[in-house]
Design brief:
Number of helices of chain B: 1
CATH architecture of one domain in chain A: 3-Layer(aba) Sandwich
Order of helices and strands of chain A: EHEEHEHHHHEEEEHHEHHHHEE
Largest sheet of chain B: 5 strands, antiparallel
Strand content of chain A: 15-25%
Number of strands of chain A: 11
Radius of gyration of chain A: 19 Å
Helix content of chain B: under 10%
Shape of chain A: globular
Oligomer: heterodimer
Shape of chain B: globular
């Protein structure tokens, strides 16, 4: 029988294209201090620190965790780094949850971050790899062909992605920490924006952000003064090779299997009905309908109907990315943990203007690499 | 008088390394030196991998049977790039496509040129344009790009499991 684990502290930085007012150390500390304050704890109360970020090339700083032990309050404590590409924020939260559930530690600080302004992510993603065919178009160039395949396969209306892009940016206006603030955004503006990687337009892509996110995870007997913990009711992680014959890059098997395990362990048989709100990793707008199908919120070929009907809007029956999501804020390594954190805020009733009324069960989701790493959790206001 | 804070300094980085390609990729690279594309077959599924990695990613078995695949194939899906990257010198727009070579069971990314970007489509047949043989080395850079063959499009059934 494993221990129960709850989120009792959530903190994040104000995210921006360039946080030149702080060093990388200052950035992570800003999020961690907020999470500790939320949990009513001090640095000395923390037993272990688990961190995650995208590959080191994203800032050009090798193994930054080695020199950040003091900034992270980890001197004399276990400090562990998790590494699963873009899903790393999610995986980092899950590794920390396992340390609590396994009875190893009572209070674990989780910190994930990226300071994208310190290097050039597109350059990093296009480094020439010997013998491999050249990937000559960055992350968008990698995912755009799969989006095209989804559009062809599903017959979705061509403006599905535009709807997502507008919805998430309007949600971000209600999130004081979000990076992009576009109060005047319209479908026309998105449609008219430059077609960067056809079929992906400029305003259908995520920004590059500097930012960090932190959580305090505690065991049941260490909740302290927290009266509204977000209980971790289910977790799952899966991976698959980037390339194998017959791989479905639109609807990856690892994502299907990860969701199935998450739902089985969480007692979910009808995710759309049972889950109140979900924070899903959508770096390009079309990934909302794609993931709706992959995660079982919609039947195959019908995810776009949820977007077009307004079901995924803040006032819809299945709000997706009430916070504004990755499309509005993307400090890569932190993006997955932000999804997990926002899910926790929702069930704690602490999401402010983007709160979904009465949310009791929320899902956080992250993916990374070539859609090959998946990390998910369910958090609830009810003790399991 | 207070000085402005230093908020960042630029430190270019570079990385030089030696790679050990292993047996499968050595075969692949030697093939390229001679203008051949050599894949390997998974003994469990019969699927041909190109480039080969020496083992099957689905079954973990050695892929010892070598299979030469064609330097022409079918575009399974693609994107049109309108963004200039610092690290590339291509004229925009250009097409980046998943290409399923005839005889292979996994597509690979490559640039398609000599095609109007409004004409590129799923199922289009394309072929490799090689450098002059005098310039060939053990590298995929021997292939400059792919271009349309002018053949009729491949039926969707022939590539739908390879996107």
């Amino acid at each position: 029988m494993s221990e129960l684990c709850a989120v009792t502290g959530v903190g994040q930085t104000h995210h921006d294209a360039e946080r030149s007012d702080v060093s990388m150390h200052g950035l992570v500390r800003e999020a961690a201090v907020r999470a500790l304050a939320d949990a009513g704890l001090e640095w000395k109360d923390i037993d272990a620190v688990v961190v995650g970020k995208a590959p080191d090339q994203f800032e050009g700083v090798m193994m930054p965790e080695l020199m950040m032990a003091d900034a992270l309050g980890a001197v004399g404590k276990p400090l562990l780094r998790v590494h699963t590409a873009g899903s790393v924020g999610g995986s980092t939260g899950l590794v920390a949850a396992k340390l609590v559930q396994g009875g190893v530690h009572k209070r674990v600080l989780v910190v994930a971050w990226e300071k994208q302004s310190e290097a050039d992510a597109s350059w990093v993603l296009m480094m020439k790899i010997p013998f491999a065919a050249p990937l000559v178009a960055g992350a968008g160039g990698y995912f755009a062909p799969y989006i095209r395949a989804y559009m062809e396969r599903s017959g979705a209306p061509k403006d599905t992605g535009i709807k997502v892009a507008v919805k998430d940016r309007l949600n971000a206006l209600k999130n004081p920490y979000a990076h992009l603030k576009m109060p005047d955004i319209t479908e026309e503006m998105v449609a008219d924006s430059l077609m960067l990687w056809d079929p992906i337009r400029y305003l259908e892509t995520c920004p590059s952000s500097d930012g960090a996110c932190a959580l305090v995870l505690t065991a049941e007997d260490a909740l302290g003064s927290c009266e509204n913990p977000a209980w971790v009711v289910s977790t799952a992680m899966r991976s698959e090779p980037t390339m194998f014959a017959g791989r479905d890059g639109v609807n990856p098997q690892a994502g299907i299997d990860c969701a199935a395990e998450l739902y089985r362990k969480g007692g979910i048989t009808d995710p759309r009905r049972q889950i109140d709100v979900a924070e899903i990793y959508v770096p390009f707008s079309w990934f909302e309908p794609m993931w709706m199908e992959n995660l079982g919120f919609a039947e195959q070929g019908e995810g776009w109907k949820m977007t077009m009907s307004g079901a995924t809007a803040l006032d819809g029956d299945m709000p997706i990315n009430a916070s504004g999501g990755v499309l509005s804020t993307n400090p890569i390594g932190a993006s997955g943990l932000l999804r997990f954190a926002e899910a926790a805020l929702q069930v704690r009733g602490m999401a402010g203007e983007h709160q979904v009324d009465g949310a009791k069960l929320a899902m956080g989701h992250a993916y990374g690499g070539g859609s090959q790493y998946f990390a998910m959790w369910l958090v609830s206001s009810d003790k399991p | 008088m207070a000085e402005d804070p230093i908020t960042g300094i630029v430190c270019p980085i570079r990385l030089d390394y030696t790679i050990t390609p292993g047996r499968a990729q050595t075969r692949f690279l030697r093939g390229l030196e001679n203008g051949k594309l050599l894949g390997q077959r998974c003994p469990a599924t019969g699927k041909v991998y190109m480039p080969p990695r020496g083992s099957s990613p689905t079954h973990g078995l050695p892929t010892t049977e070598e299979v030469e695949v064609a330097d022409r194939g079918t575009v399974t899906t693609f994107c049109i790039v309108n963004l200039q990257f610092a690290s590339t010198v291509r004229e925009i727009p250009y097409v980046c496509a998943q290409i399923l070579l005839d005889g292979a069971d996994i597509p690979f990314f490559f640039v398609v040129q000599e095609v109007d970007v409004n004409e590129i489509r799923m199922g289009m047949r394309v072929e490799a344009v090689w450098k002059d043989p005098s310039e060939w080395g053990p590298t995929l850079e021997n292939i400059l790009f792919f271009k349309p063959t002018g053949e009729a499009d491949a039926p969707r059934e022939s590539y739908k499991e390879h996107v």
